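Structure first, sequence second, as always.
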């Protein structure tokens, strides 16, 4: 999918790094699969921002060093843009300003960083002063928790359009008239900085493609290929009368999720693996179910599907290779084929719609 995406866009924000450190192979895969002028942004792992909350006494420097070392091949190839420090709503100015200031001091100057707050207490002059001191950008957001105000604290700017939906915010398709007020804001910032980055939430209906190109058109920056792909998406979305009938876009292919389990599985695995899953014998599988968790063994491998935590744990070699892509191996395919059909479809549609939230892990992580 990345090799297709880079034909239309010059940057991507990596969300998966929030949930786990990327492997070296994954980073080199991004490097190989992108053209020379492509730039990645990436979120800092949640162990830094949400679990230790930038606390200098929680080995934060080691966590940061490990992540930066992994991302360094992209930086050396001039393919790394800002690293996003997204902080939780509980992270407030009064409780956390000291840790925040100490953390900014740790940041090496050869990397660029942006901070996204989710607590209004940070909107004050002291925040801008310390961020400007270390050339760290304030992330200009469109979301329910913070005002859509512009603050420039670095020599680059970072915009994130989350959406204005409810439960969740990002379940949202911007109207053109909602994007128009952002044009002067982007132009205002563009005159003050060297570089402007902007990202829309990767909505499972494909709204981000349409909205991103729309604002590029308003700014006079869209090329013909971007306009063409936007028109395809708009046509697709317009052909769906009921929102409940719209399903995920797979690599701009507009595949529809049917009611049949095998059809849904083909959005999460390839045909070859599905056929191999169907060939696994029923007596090779042991399943134990409760309301929120499914666990057991398939052949010599273990598996856990935790719906509440949105996590799958499995340990075959193919799973380990494919887990970073959020794709299923043949064993997981057999499990979903063997579960009651309603439950199987419910879990898979949850994975498709909330793919950035689900964690695909192996037991040694």
């Amino acid at each position: 999918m990345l090799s297709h995406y880079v034909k239309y866009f010059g940057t991507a924000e990596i969300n998966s790094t929030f949930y786990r450190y990327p492997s070296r192979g994954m980073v080199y895969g991004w490097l190989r699969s992108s053209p020379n002028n492509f730039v990645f942004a990436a979120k800092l792992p949640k162990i830094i921002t949400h679990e230790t909350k930038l606390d200098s006494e929680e080995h934060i420097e080691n966590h940061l060093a490990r992540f930066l070392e992994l991302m360094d091949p992209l930086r050396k190839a001039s393919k790394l843009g800002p690293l996003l420090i997204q902080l939780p709503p509980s992270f407030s100015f009064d409780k956390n300003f000291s840790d925040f200031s100490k953390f900014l001091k740790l940041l090496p100057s050869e990397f660029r960083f942006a901070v996204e707050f989710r607590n209004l207490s940070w909107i004050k002059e002291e925040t801008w002063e310390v961020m400007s001191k270390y050339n760290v950008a304030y992330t200009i957001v469109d979301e329910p928790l913070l005002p859509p105000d512009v603050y420039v604290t670095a020599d680059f700017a970072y915009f994130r359009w989350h959406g204005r939906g409810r439960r969740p915010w990002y379940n949202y398709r911007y109207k053109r008239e909602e994007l128009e007020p952002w044009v002067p804001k982007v132009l205002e910032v563009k005159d003050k900085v060297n570089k402007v980055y902007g990202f829309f939430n990767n909505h499972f209906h494909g709204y981000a493609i349409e909205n991103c190109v729309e604002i590029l058109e308003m700014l006079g920056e869209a090329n013909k290929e971007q306009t063409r792909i936007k028109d395809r998406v708009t046509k697709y979305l317009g052909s769906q009368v009921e929102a409940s009938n719209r399903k995920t876009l797979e690599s701009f292919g507009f595949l529809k999720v049917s009611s049949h389990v095998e059809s849904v599985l083909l959005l999460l695995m390839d045909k070859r693996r599905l056929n191999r899953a169907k060939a696994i014998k029923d007596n090779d599988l042991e399943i134990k179910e409760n309301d929120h968790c499914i666990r057991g063994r398939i052949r010599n491998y273990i598996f856990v599907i935790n719906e509440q935590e949105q996590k799958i744990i499995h340990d075959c070699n193919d799973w380990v290779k494919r887990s970073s892509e959020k794709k299923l191996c043949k064993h997981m395919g057999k499990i979903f084929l063997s579960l009651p059909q309603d439950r199987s479809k419910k879990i898979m549609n949850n994975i498709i719609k909330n793919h950035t939230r689900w964690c695909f892990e192996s037991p040694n992580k």
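Margin note: The chain has two domains: 2-245, 261-361.
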